Amino acid sequence: MLTVNYDRLGVAPGDRLLDLGCGFGRHAFEAARRGAGVVALDAGADEVAGVCATIGAMVAAGELDADDTRAGAVRGDALRLPFADDAFDRVIASEVLEHIENDVGAMTELARVLRPGGTMAVTVPRCGPEFINWALSDEYHDVPGGHVRIYRRSTLRARLSSTGLEPVGSHHAHGLHSPYWWLRCLVGPTNDTNPAVASYHKLLVWDIVKAPRPTRLADKVLSPLIGKSLVVYLRKPERADGAQQSGRAGIATRPTVGAGPTRGRGEAA
User: Fold this and answer.
1) Residue 1 has what pLDDT?
2) How far apart are CA 8 and CA 10, in angstroms?
3) Which domain covers residue 33, as residue numbers?
C-alpha cells in the first residue's frame, strides 16, 4: 500500500533514494522494483531487520537483480543522518514527522542530504481525520513513540519551506482508511478482535491485495474528502553556481547513532 505517487516524485532507474522512517519498507520495496538504489532508514531494529530480510527474499524470488540492486536498510537518527550532503536524488518521509519532537531539525537534515534539483515526498496524517482520532481516543496518540502533533497543510509547507525546499504540489490519500481508524478509536485502538474492526480490516486487505474496481473507485472519491494522509511534494533548488551534488559516491560518511524516528499507532492499515 503506497501513499506516495512515484511518478509525481520522479523516481527513475539509477536514482538514489532515501526512505526515512521506513517501517517495514513498503515505499523502499517499490522504489527498488523501479530500479532505484534505495537506503531504508529507521530507528527500530526489528524494522531494519525485516526490510533486509524482505530485500533478500525479493532477490531470491527474482523480483530484484542481485547484481544490480543497491537496496539496503540501516538504523539511524532522523536528526543526524549518517549521509553526505546532496547524497540522494529522491527522498521519502512517510508518516514519520508527526512522531518527532524536533520536526524542523529532521526536515533540515532531509534537505541537507537531498541533491540540488532533487525531489522529496513528505506524508503526514491529514488534520481533519486526525483531529477526530484524537477526540475519540487518547490512547490512539498518547503512547511511547506516538503522534506528538497534528499538521495543517499550511504549517507543514511553511516548516519545510524554511529549510530551503520548494513545495510543488500535494494531494490526499487513503480515503477508505479514515473511517477504519475512527472505528478503532471508538472501540479502543488495541481492540483488534472487535467484529466490526475485523471485518473492515478484511475489506482493506482485500483492497490492498486485489485492488478491485469498487474499492478503488470508493477510495478515489473519498481521498480528497476524508483521505487519511496528506502528501506534499517538494524540490530542492539548483545551486546558483551550477555545482553538482557532492555525496553520491559514498553516502555513509557518519556513524549511525541513537534513537530516531519511531512509529506509533495511526499508520494506515
Assistant:
1) 86
2) 5
3) 6-125+143-172+229-235
